[in-house]
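Appendix B. Worked example

We walk through a single record from start to finish. Start with the input: the chain for Pyrimidine-specific ribonucleoside hydrolase RihA, Pseudomonas fluorescens, length 325.
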Amino acid sequence: MTLTTATNAQAAPKIDLIIDTDPGADDVVALLFALASPDELNVRALTTVAGNVRLDKTSRNARLAREWAGREEVPVYAGAPRPLMRTPIYAEDIHGKEGLSGIAVHEPRKGLAKGSAITYLIDTLKSAEPHSITIAMLGPQTNLALALIQEPGIVQGIKEVVVMGGAHFNGGNITPVAEFNLFADPQAAEVVLNSGVKLTYLPLDVTHKILTSEAHLNQIAALNNNASRLVGSILNEYIKGDMEHYGLPGGPVHDATVVAYLLKPQLFSGRSVNVVVDSREGLTFGQTIVDWYDGLKAPKNAFWVESGDAQGFFDLLTERLARLK
Ligand code: BDR
Ligand code: CA
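Next comes the structure step. The output line below is what the pipeline stores for this chain.
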């Protein structure tokens, strides 16, 4: 009895988490990773947004991910069907027509939760304990931006927003300077950057340092459960595009790095910086301008993660996938 009490007293508090996502191959890997980690992550809901594919498909794929993870009790709310201002863009060339490379999709057993993701975010964050909820942002930031525009006071409920997006040292992946999630809705990212919330960015700078290798894929395959087979099939197809485009020996698993960061931040390093996103029409549309050397002496509005431990990442992912069926 005493031992149990002592252990509980020492356990780190769970992270109260909302995952905003546009699944998306790497999003689904991130969702399986997060949903396999209930000891650390209290996933309250998945909120979906148009991004890699249209909203109906990202919402279906999020529901598939929770089904595959055996976590159908986690509600999925559909959010914005298009960006704040720009013309919608999709990434079917990378993620496939259904938004899930390498595997067949079906209609999931359980439907969407009633109500929109934006209303869910407003209601939840408004009534939350001060600075208690973390948001993992795995796609364009449209849902949170719309919620912040309608109810700026919801900032009080947010502990931290952890974004997969942006690029500085690495260069872009959709234009020479812009990363897809920021390019898909720069005005939304701007709203979040200017909102005063605590922000962490995992940009291409770090995700391109955490690449798959044959050994990493083999360690996942060796689990030989349904989750590992799904992740193996998704990744083997998904990484092809980046490996060819960049001449890389493996591919990044972008969105899953956000989950690894939440579970084990000690795998990563970065710096507090001032970040601005360019939302003007032109060649630099969607670019993140990062004042790494503090030349502007401007307020530091984000923690910019610049590197990470690739083997540590794949060991953690493998360990968590082993917990699923
Ligand atoms: C990001 O863009 C999307 O295509 C991926 O899902 C990831 O969120 C990488 O640039
Ligand atoms: Ca994504």
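Two observations about the output. The chain has one domain: 4-321. Residues 22, 24, 27, 51-52, 138-139, 255 surround calcium ion (ligand 2) (CB under 6 Å).
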